[in-house]
Amino acid sequence: MRVLLVNTSEKTGGAAVAARRLMDALNNNGVKAKMLVREKETDALTVSALPSSWRLRWHFLWERLCIYVKMHFRKEHLFEADIANAGSDITSLREFQEADVIHLHWINQGMLSIGSIRKILESGKPVVWTMHDMWPATAICHYARDCKRFQTACSHCPLLPGGGADNDLSARVWQRKQRVWTQGNISFVACSRWLERQARESELLRGKFVTNVPNPINVGVFCRKDKAEARRRLGLPVGKRVILFASQRVTDQRKGIRYLVEALSRMVSDYPEMKDNTVVAVLGGHAEEVVGQLALPAFPLGYVSDEKTIVDVYNAADTFVLPSLEDNLPNTIMEAMACGVPCVGFNTGGIPEMIDHLKTGYVAACKDAADLARGIRLVLDETDADEISRQCVSKVMTAYSYQRVALKYIDVYNQALAVKDETV
């Protein structure tokens, strides 16, 4: 079986990381998997890039410009929406023609347009689409938050000025998607049970095959290592407790940094001795912009792409905190747990599926900084560190290993191929 995984980027972003890991997992389990990207960042032979062209940049710029105009030249929600009005036709590429299954991942920001997806479906090849967020099930947004219009038909979009209208941008994109999504052999895979439930509620996906398969992680790379040595390499204090927060962009409000700021302030107020025995490490872009807001001594580590250094960062931590307001199946939680680090997060999205409450960490009430502080304190002071670390590793080995996830996807591919055979 030959599978072509399609994603905008090769390494940048959670979806890229997950797709790249899945490609490796499939190749380790008898599937000939390749990856097609717009932004190739390594010399890997199994990863191909779209043919270099000025059009690739233009696709991105044209879509952003159209959205910018519809948002009345406001930047507030500019990158929370995608309309897929421009993208590349990949059906003539050798990689596409050789594949038995086309596996879409995160294909936004000019990689594929709705028209490009229509051509893929018209080719007759079975399509599997891993949903790394809600965009395949909504009109233009990646996360619907409190909006439920995707359950019937998108319009009056909260991302648009004035809350949109009956025939706003979201309504028109919805109609284009609806015409295309009904075509061809397409199966949707959510990375979490939460996202699967959201997908099943979408009118766009009515009657489609929808299931859930988690992202995989290489437990040979992300594993427990010597904590003191990891801290020395990173320049973190060896004799203190380390709370870790990580995000590709630390200032992304969806990742909930403001709740961590408030939780730490509460903890220091109640337990002032923490200023002497606990520090915070912040991993991600713009880290230096938030460390001054934290009530504890903080170390901005910045954006790190080197995998060995990232493993060191996790191993240096005593707990990983991710108070996301909405998230699918964060790679960061999976990576931390694989390194034996207990996690604290909000009861939202796929996070409670990953953190077993009071067993591998703490699941706090959503948007409750006081409960978040309670969870951090409990993990640091009231748990058996060795036992909770062991439970974290066991959870990852059981649920997210390469072999386990690859076999689940092979089942999805075989089902998609069987449907193709029935329709020939």
Describe this structure in words.
The protein has helices spanning 14-27, 54-70, 94-98, 114-122, 169-181, 193-200, 227-234, 257-270, 274-277, 307-316, 331-338, 351-354, 369-381, 385-399, 402-423, and strands at residues 2-9, 32-39, 47-49, 101-104, 127-131, 186-190, 209-212, 241-249, 278-285, 298-302, 319-322, 343-346, 361-364. With 424 residues, it is of the alpha/beta class. It folds into two domains: 2-216 and 402-423, Rossmann fold; 227-399, Glycogen Phosphorylase B (Rossmann fold, 3-Layer(aba) Sandwich), CATH 3.40.50. The strands form two sheets. The chain has a seven-stranded parallel β-sheet. A six-stranded parallel β-sheet has the order 10-9-8-11-12-13, sandwiched between helices. Strand 12, helix 12 (351-354) and strand 13 form a beta-alpha-beta unit. Helix 1 crosses helix 15, helix 7 crosses helix 10 and helix 8 packs across helix 13 (369-381). The chain starts with a strand and ends with a helix.
Question: What is this entry, summarized?
Answer:
The protein is of the alpha/beta class and 424 residues long. Helices cover 39% and strands 17% of the residues. α8 (257-270) packs across α13.
List keywords for this structure.
424 residues; alpha/beta; Rossmann fold; 2 domains; seven-stranded parallel β-sheet; six-stranded parallel β-sheet; 13 strands; 39% helix; 17% strand
